[in-house]
Specification:
The chain is α+β, with helices and mostly antiparallel strands. Helices cover about 35% and strands about 35% of the residues.
Length: about 240
Amino acid sequence: MSTSTSNVSSNSQSQAIWAALNGSKNGASTSSASSSSDGGAAGIQNQFLKLLTTQLQNQDPLNPLDNSQMTSQLAQISSLQGIQQLNTTLQTMLGNTQDSQALQAAALVGRAVLVPGNGIPMSGGATSYAGFDLAGAADKVTVTVKNSSGLAVRTLSLGSADAGTNMFSWDGKTDNGTTAADGSYTFTVAAVQGSKDVGATALSVGKVSSVVRSGTGFNLDVGSLGTAAFSDVREVF
């Protein structure tokens, strides 16, 4: 007899829980079921609380809901709400960061920046500037300027340099003392510490003409140097 009573109570409880979750009574759906459903955290939270309330109302008197189970369920819904609030906060912070980055990027239009690249222009024999980024300190740094054919026209011995970003200038002269022809040149950087090579990244100076939003941030149009990510800017002049 007790087994039959328990099965009936369990079936009734299951039907009541199903009805509560689906907005129906005694298994019959109502028109409010679809309107009250929500796939977001708020909807899940409401369904969870409805489920818990229904469990309490329809629990088997001979086998009541364990306190530890109730505590666990309450902890789960609390965690869900906390995660949802955290996601909202992070989205707000991300939006604020993107707005701030947009303003900073827009402020660079018309300014000269130092970005990764190995181009160095020459016009009228005027002094040109470029830079390099060293992975570590070096006791000897050599810069080789090359023309469009890849032939070396000037070798600059810069001596020692610290790790990080460094600048150098080219006076527009070739190794034989003549003025280099106008045009676009490239350069390479070789750095050593004792007998060991030091990693070096060439950096070019260009003028920002516009800012373009990309899927991952903002890109800067740096004229003949092409485009550079906002995060790649080493210095602003």
